[in-house]
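Record type: ASSEMBLY
Status: queued
Input:
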Amino acid sequence: MLDISDLHVEVDGIEKLHDINLHIGQGETHILMGPNGSGKSTLLKAVMGFGGYKITSGSIVFKGKEIIGMPIHERAHLGIGMMFQHPPTISGLKLGKLLAATSHLGSDAIEALAQSVNMEKFLTRDTNVGFSGGEIKRSEVLQLKVQQPDFLMLDEPESGVDLENMNLMGKEIAGLLEKDVHIVNRRKSGLIITHTGYILDYLEADQGHVLIDGRIRCHGNPREILRAVKDKGYGECLRCQQM
Amino acid sequence: MPTDVGDIEQISEKDRERLALTGLEVGMQNRCGSFFQIDQDVIQTTCGAEGVEMLPIKAALEKYDWVKDYYWNAVSKDKDKYTQYLAKQENPQGLVVIAREGVKVEMPLQACLFLRDEPVQHVHNIFIAQEGSEINIISGCASSWQKEHGAHIGVTEIYVGKGAKVTSTMIHNWNPGISVFPRSATVVEEDGTFLSNYVCMQPVRQINMYPTARLIGKNAVARFSSIVVATPGSTLDLGSRTILAAENTSTELVTRAITTGGTIISRGHILGEKDNTRGHIECKGLILKDGIIHAIPEIEGTLTGTELSHEAAVGKIARNEIEYLMARGLSEEEATATIIRGFLDVKISGLPAVLQTQIDAAIDKAESGF
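Status: finished
Output:
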């Protein structure tokens, strides 16, 4: 579904990602770990196509199409969706209006989806304005449920979320990734940035990657990587010469 | 019930469309009274609401001796050259609305002031809401589509009695060569509420106004909301002022300003001079194309018991907001329009749905031009 090859990305004239190679097949979920500032969010934003993330070389092929140079909304139409870690607040734009503007769903369908993530009272509130950590995540999940992307990029879905919300979030994300569908028929793929690995309590991931200083240092079983990082920290990854 | 707007036949189809955008309902489905003045001719005054009277100003001054106490009272004749010009007129025109004690009418009255053939239109309006009454007035001011130059000078004096509530919504639809000088003032008595809404999103040469509300009775409230767009060549010098002249009074002045190349000066002034008074000024400006938005909020307190604040922000649409919506599938243009629509969405509590619909229609019409 997604093939990233030899990707180099610059932000403000400084190269932040070096020679990234990543292949995510249909139905697969991958976990991306790494210390703060290692470039994880940069990778997601470069794939989404945000301004300020300049691709100096390499390629990003999604569903067989090169998407470098494609406007953000065309990538969204192609099936890429993103859960933002720090979404902007949009003063005056009601969440319900945003959902109506970005979909063909009627108000009843939107209301029902909002209820499924306890967000029905927020439809008449300005988007993300004054939302708590958990509310922001639920708002993001709601937007993705409306959008139904084939490939989900989730930027730290656990951060700022209490236990009760984490339970809801975990189940909803598993649903978005069609974890309830048999692996043979599963169409949805995902790339999840996580520091804690809590999300793995709710869904199985197929592969894990560790990104340090803009380079992928390790590919492997996500639970083993998580355990290794918990036990020995990222310093061990730097010393590891496996790759 | 009132009849249709009289002599509407003499107005061209194109002008009727322009007037409709200022809130004029020819069929009067959602209006309980109507006043229509073309240049200096009053062609219609009709009111079907019991306990509410609409009269041309001359008729009102002749019919009720006491109306003269309200004439040039809230606004001083000598305020400036425009009020002096109006005071000199031997044949004043304009509308007087009188809402009798305790009468509450939710359906709006409409006042339409249409500049068509004369170089200058002048009007003097007086709205009197007696104790416990409630009225909504929608004033639509427009010029004919073929009118190249001209001026509109208007004085409006509003008196909100004890426990009364007046909602005044003014929608302007002028031409690039028209200059407009409204001079308005409102006096609000104890427990009274005054809501003023102003919308101007079409080209005009200049508009200059600074309406003032004086809250003279305890617990009185005033709220001014303005939604304005300055197109290239337009200069909008707008402000609103509230004087908190009694205990427990409060006010809010809210402005959303957009320039697509014109100039907006957004003034605001709150004077807190009594205990337990509160006031807030909020001005948000979007510069879509190079132009000027100059916010000048002033808050002035004279004793410890007043709490006044202001916030003003001027800038362009944040890139990350546009990209956020693009990531949900909107094109850059769609994302921008959606954000602008939200920016202008100033829902005013207590505003009747029909007035909100009118404001939304004016926004929708202007938006297609962004």
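Annotation: The interface with chain A takes residues 284, 318-321, 323-332, 334-335, 338-339, 341-346 of chain B (CB under 8 Å).
Annotation: The first strand of chain B starts at residue 33 and ends at 38.
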